[in-house]
Specification:
single chain, 251 residues, alpha/beta, Spore Coat Polysaccharide Biosynthesis Protein SpsA, Chain A, two-stranded antiparallel ribbon, globular, nucleotidyltransferase, transmembrane helix, 2-C-methyl-D-erythritol 4-phosphate cytidylyltransferase, membrane
Length: 251
């Protein structure tokens, strides 16, 4: 049976843009397709994060970045699985190039002041909550940048002589496991990515590029244990268990 077309809700006015990256593959999950388009409780993995960002007050634009081979999958998600229309673009060879292309896609609206903040999220983190995404957006607007993360109490740094160094006490330079969405002042992060492209700099995530090319402070927003990334088959099974246990549903 063909899945019915989703009823569409007009996008609320907002000066923030949400960018969802789906450039991964299904190799480590053991799937033959991009893991972002695997099913999770009746919807694709990607649809969960897209619908969560769509429900955040202040986000008026959603950009979905996919590989050229996945355009048909993305169009299906747009037509059948999301409540709000998506702007679908193709990404680059790396995460950073895909982020740059998304920012360039928004550049005219950023320059015109129509977009003041950008949230960049991994499609492979489907269970991000509305509250966390809203908190990141609020913090990014307050200080310039915001990154969610959970305390990494099980990590200990290693010294130059390969011996363990005592981990910092909680609240005093403690390590965190960084998550997404990561939010930044739009014009600032666009300039940072253009500078990185000129220099050939490749960071690990949005925050690393911001750290290298801007002086804006980046707030730490308390992340969520359920906002994990689906990388392996067991992660997808865990996500299904979380959805069932918490009675979640894709918006």
């Amino acid at each position: 049976m063909t899945q019915p077309r989703r009823a569409r809700t007009p996008r609320p006015p907002g000066r923030a843009a949400g960018v969802v990256l789906a450039g991964g593959s299904g190799t480590r999950v053991g799937a033959g397709i991009n893991k972002a388009f695997l099913p999770l409780a009746g919807r694709s993995i990607a649809a969960w994060g897209l619908n969560t960002l769509a429900a955040v007050e202040g986000i008026g634009i959603l950009v979905f970045v996919v590989r050229p081979d996945d355009l048909e999958h993305a169009r299906f998600v747009n037509a059948r699985e999301t409540d709000s229309p998506l702007e679908i673009i193709t990404g680059g060879e790396t995460r950073q190039e895909s982020e740059l292309l998304a920012l360039r896609h928004l550049a005219d609206r950023i320059d015109a002041g129509a977009i003041d903040t950008v949230l960049i999220h991994d499609a492979a983190r489907p269970l991000v909550s509305h509250g966390l995404a809203s908190a990141v957006l609020h913090a990014a607007r307050e200080v310039g940048g915001a990154v969610p993360g959970t305390p990494a109490s099980d990590i200990a740094p290693v010294g130059t002589d390969d011996t363990l160094v005592a981990a910092p006490a909680p609240g005093r330079g403690a390590l965190v496991r960084v998550q997404t969405p990561q939010g930044f002042h739009a014009a600032t992060i666009l300039d940072a990515y253009e500078a990185a492209a000129r220099d050939g700099f490749v960071g690990t995530d949005t925050a690393s590029c911001a750290e290298e090319y801007t002086e804006i402070p980046v707030a730490w927003v308390r992340g969520e244990e359920t906002n994990f990334k689906i990388t392996y088959a067991q992660d997808l099974l865990l996500a299904q268990d979380v959805v069932s246990a918490l009675g979640l549903r894709s918006r």
